[in-house]
Amino acid sequence: MNSGGTEPFYQLCPVPRLVIRPTEAFQLSNKSLDRLGRSLQDLISIVADLRRRGIGFRSLHEALDTTTPGGRLVFHVFAALAEFIRELIVEGTHEGLAAARARGQRLGRPPAMSEEQIRQARALLTRPDESVSSIARLLGVSRTTLYKYLPEMTTKG
Description:
With 157 residues, this protein is mainly alpha-helical. It has six helices and five strands; from the N terminus they run E-E-E-H-E-E-H-H-H-H-H. The strands form two sheets. It has a three-stranded mixed sheet, with helices on one face. It has a two-stranded antiparallel ribbon with strand order 1-2. Helix 3 runs antiparallel to helix 4.
């Protein structure tokens, strides 16, 4: 550790897998603001940390540079808009899912076995010459799926 408050030569940046080697005029360039942090608070924290360390930040997609006061203002406005848009998308997704549920649509992965397959499996299980593996193969499901849909199989000896 160096004395006099200077930082070590290699210092980890809050951005994953990025090692910063301080130079006289270092600037971190990033493709887009939404790729740097997950929230407005993350973005502001990362850019503030970079600024404290004498590192400028430049977003290529938004064409902004935080080394100037105007660039910092635009950064905060764009970051707030990005978070707002992200929240609108999440809200719209939740509303869409609620509307689908209200219409009675089934959401998520479809069931592995139909009611007809379950009835067929139960009928085949009564035959002594049928094994669980052969029934599963016949129905095109795994043994685990059969045990899941036919819980009475696990209670039998």
